[in-house]
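Pilot study result, target chain (550 residues):
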Amino acid sequence: MYKKNKLLIVLAAAVLLTITACSNSDSKQSTASNTSTSGSAVEDGPLVKYDPPIELRSVKAEVDKSLLQSGDTTEENVWTRAYSKDLGIDIKYDWIVAPGNVNDKMNVTLASGDLPDLMTVTTTQLKQLIDADKVEDLTEVYNKYATPLLKKYVEADDKIGMKSVTINDKLYGIPNYTGILDNAPVLWIRSDWMKKLNLQAPKTTDDLIAIAKAFVEQDPDGNGKNDTQGLILSKGLQQEGNLQPTGFFNGFHAQLGIWVKDSAGKYVYSSTQPQVKEALYKLQQMYKDGLIDKEFGTKDVAKAFEAANANKAGMFFGPMYAPFQVGELVGKDKSVDWAAFPIVSADGKPVLAQEPAPNSNSYVVRKGYEHPEALIKLLNFQVDKMYGENSATERKKYTGDNDQGWQGAVVSILPPNKNTAAQEHISEALKSKDPSKLNVEEKGYYDNILKFRDGDRSQWWNERIFGPDSSQAVLKYYRDNNLLINDAFIYAPTDAMDSKKATLDKLELETFTKIIYGASSIDDFDKFVSDWKKLGGDAITEEVNAILSK
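Predicted structure:
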């Protein structure tokens, strides 16, 4: 029941602002004719108001009041008032809970059978709703009502996001698709330490290891003690938010935890491929040589980063927004700096940066709701106010001074890959010293970069994320050179995954950690592969190939 496709997806960084770079033509709205129950023609279209008004029940995560305008709440704000005034849609929330409780609350709601008219669901929840015939097919209303601007965002990157919610040629949800770039791994290195030790930018894995060795042995912090680390790892060895050690494995043309196509055209689980063994062996050697924290296997990400903020570690693989994790020390000491580099190759051949496993949500409408097109109108309204032809005057009204008020909208779509576009625009403005073409958000980043250059250390992250030599510049390099690889399996877990995956993931993590520690031989990787297949891996592989081959 699934269509074959390929997906690159990442979580946008919640801490970053959005950008506005859309052409006027994208926001032009078409109108259509519809027929009322009396048989007379009535105006209808992407942003036409309901008269009389309609009610729409939904659910939502609580929005911090600091992100909303004064006096606004999650339940009633500038967006909900505008929906009622301009669209004739009155939003009623069945529940509003803390963000961390949304998934559990939604599962309870699905189990109860009392569904709201509009919901945000995960891929697993979407599959449950489709199997139970509880969600509307949105194909017709999307094609009829979606504005060109909304379609531009939803259908970005060759409609990758849409493919994950299209089953048997029916569109069951509108994906909240954020693009293919923001969560690819970037190599972060203490550039001030490199300068102090006269080290050059790494071009290969051997260069990376040499830098790590110098950081451990040549006293880069200058305290006369042997107390500094090379490469930061944590107890999770796959993509884990602010640490992405998969970037090291990618240098060996290996990936962890995703499904990829092998040379024979079959989909295989990447962690079981022979290239992973090579990367593990190299990490084992690095650990033995003292280039990795001896206790990394007991530390979560936050604990692992303590060494960086204590001036005791100099290298890690992380996302483009990693400056937020290491900015503490930067703010205290003006001599401290981190630089972003592309991941490096073990053999000199081009390597592909691995995207995290998809974690996509989509907006769906309860089957039987009289106005499924209301979802499309709400999204049209949001993208028009934030990115349409009048957004220069309209946007601030809805997003406020901090530009975060969009989170009060019942549904929202942001421009995919928006941050890389911002970096390009800002770098051009910095070079020309002319910010006149920047939108409001980009101008904010631009101004903050100038503040950093004038000595305001609190604005360092703007330079390192959006400046000319920044993490977004690295992501642009990946994009422009086709150096990205994604998880081919983007759907809800298969039956075998539901029953076997947790056990297999535990086996993988324990085996790989022991190998790096040197507690197990590198040849135990071969036993892991054999055990993985016997304990359910073969069954999962069969299911994945059956789905992706359709």
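One observation from the pilot: The domain at 44-178+360-408 is CATH 3.40.190.10 (D-Maltodextrin-Binding Protein; domain 2). A full batch analysis is planned for the follow-on phase.
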